[in-house]
Design a protein that fits this description.
By secondary structure, the chain is α+β, with helices and mostly antiparallel strands. The protein folds into 2 domains: 174 residues, no CATH class; 98 residues, Tumour Suppressor Smad4, CATH 2.60.200. Helices cover 14% and strands 36% of the residues. It contains 3 helices and 15 strands.
């Protein structure tokens, strides 16, 4: 995309955003050129999304999620292990959970090795010539082993993701109302764990003559993160809702583009721990924009 075209679209959006009153139902007026640029932008972002999803260590590579118990546990593919994996050597490692800390060590002869992470702390244990890995994750007060394999059927058999046609009408101008003082929102995940998550504020917008709101979450990178449900779930989109990011608010305003709504990892694999939409984020409207329900048989 040329710098001139990018500037044209950004300027038009900025002018419209500044002109809208809070809660006003608006659809960005786009010329044919602007619409073509916008659609190309959405296609580009979707391509990036697919690239991340299908990486050897992406969400599609998950093949196991094993919750740890206190004490020493043996890990490997053989049935005599305490934790039996779907891939890897018969005896891969030992895992020790004690006093809220986890230590994982490869078994001699397993061919596994620690992959360094931040500050020299092992990020994961790699095996199968580096194509597979085991990583410790923490959810609430529980710990688990997350297992990945680049040859996972969910990755090698990935069928692509069907989407709705890009609709500028679902690129909505929103008012951001910060919470004062800052607060958290209890977010329940598919495993039943509840996490108090930073909740910087509410976005309010209108569509089709009706007003709606979403509670924003903060994952630490400054962007606004939404986990939401709507009337399209189950029949057309993933039953447990979808996710969406928006840029940080400027002068109390941001843009929420539902054409970028995407499926959580749980739509593709049973081995993830996705957050569920809070009650505040259940929209009484069918959001026919963004990714549709994943159907691997297609």
């Amino acid at each position: 995309m040329s710098a001139t075209r990018t500037t044209l679209l950004s300027t038009a959006a900025a002018i419209l955003l500044a002109a809208c009153s809070p809660g006003e139902d608006t659809t960005p007026p786009m010329s044919e050129e602007e619409l073509a640029i916008y659609r190309a932008e959405i296609e580009g972002k979707h391509a990036q999304r697919i690239e991340r999803l299908t990486r050897p260590d992406g969400w599609l590579s998950l093949v196991g999620l094993h919750w740890l118990q206190p004490g020493l546990q043996r890990v490997g593919r053989a049935p005599d292990n305490d934790i039996v994996l779907a891939t890897g050597p018969d005896h891969l490692a030992t895992v020790q959970l004690q006093d809220g800390e986890v230590r994982i060590e490869p078994v001699e002869g397993s061919g596994a090795w620690h992959e360094p992470g931040a500050d020299g702390v092992p990020a994961r244990l790699r095996f199968n010539d580096g194509e597979a890995s085991v990583q410790v994750i923490e959810r609430g007060e529980r710990f688990a082993l997350r297992v990945r394999d680049a040859q996972a059927p969910t990755r090698t058999g990935f069928a692509g993701i069907e989407r709705y046609d890009t609709d500028p009408g679902w690129r909505v101008q929103a008012e951001f109302v910060p919470h004062q003082p800052p607060r958290t929102l209890p977010i329940v995940d598919v495993t039943g764990q509840t996490t108090e998550t930073p909740n910087p504020g509410t976005v309010r917008f209108a569509h089709g003559g009706k007003r709606y709101s979403l509670e924003a979450l903060d994952e630490g990178d400054g962007r606004l993160f939404f986990v939401f449900a709507d009337r399209s779930n189950a029949a057309e989109t993933y039953g447990a809702g979808r996710m969406l990011y928006a840029d940080p608010a400027v002068d109390g305003r941001t843009v929420v583009d539902f054409n970028l709504a995407y499926n959580p990892p749980c739509a593709f694999t049973e081995y993830s721990t996705c957050p569920l939409p809070p009650p505040e984020n259940r929209l009484d409207v069918a959001v026919r924009a963004g990714e549709k329900r994943y159907r691997p048989e297609n």
